[in-house]
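Handout, section B. The chain below has 330 residues.
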Amino acid sequence: MGGLTAVWEGEFPRPGAEEDAREWAHHGIAVLPDGRVAVADARGSRLAICQPDGRIEHVMTLPIIQAHGITVEAGDDGTFLWVADNGDHRWLLPDGSVTPRSDAPQGRVLKVGLDGEVLLSIGVPRLPQYRDAPFSPTHVVVDEANAGSGDVWICDGYGASLVIRVTPEGEIAQVIDGVSGMGHFNQPHGATIDRRRGAPELLVADRANSRIQVFDLDGRFQRGVGVGDLRSPGHFAPYGRWLLVAELHRRIMALGEDDAVHTVLDCRTGAADEFEGGWPNVLAGEETTSPAFQAGMLNSPHSIAVAGDRLYVAEWVIGGRLCTFTLQAS
């Protein structure tokens, strides 16, 4: 099948880079059908629409805490953004410490127009699992109406670890938890609908379990992928016959049509303390700071998007970082 590599282009201009230098970026990125880029700033509540060269066209402030995941829905009635707000955001305090993660995040999912108008808001699902667990959605995938049902799959990656299917109007249609397959999800961080083989399949990045679980669009388990090859799969982006997978621990991987896992970019150093000492940031004494970035090296790839042969990567780090690469098949 050949290989796939990612060649460094550079850092992509970040919305609000200077004013948000103390914010811990934990955001999504997506590409619109016309090639423009939708990306949240490091603060998480503002969404920018940018030209491919980074020029900002406009910025919308949404009624959210953290635009953790951004998904584009394009159809006959227009182009929309689905935003998964995990309901929690951290930032660097003046004393060099970082605010803790909330024990009770107030997450929700929004469907918005490109002008920022909120068209639909989905709050805590009325399910028994949320009597004791928070709702902290991390990503949304849409079975676009022009190719499928129009249904929406919500990944609750930081709450009850469920994947919830809702109708286009936001009504709950189905819940899957992974138990019927390889075992209960642990941080179902991202998902995608994969149509490379004809019959569409739902792939769930079961991140803390270091695997991908595959279902049909009726929620029936099909198989597992990447066991032993993946460490922290979190987000997907299609690229021709490949499906790219962002691994939080410094790698970009790819799935072939045969489910084989290929390395696209491996930035791990092999050091014993690589993911300790404040990672993805660094500790300077008792203070937390943003790491010193190196050209061509990823620190903590969180969300990815593809336009043509260009790969966009948003990293999980204080201050934020956006990078671009050129994808090359061999």
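Note. The chain has a mean pLDDT of 95. Compare this with the example in section A.
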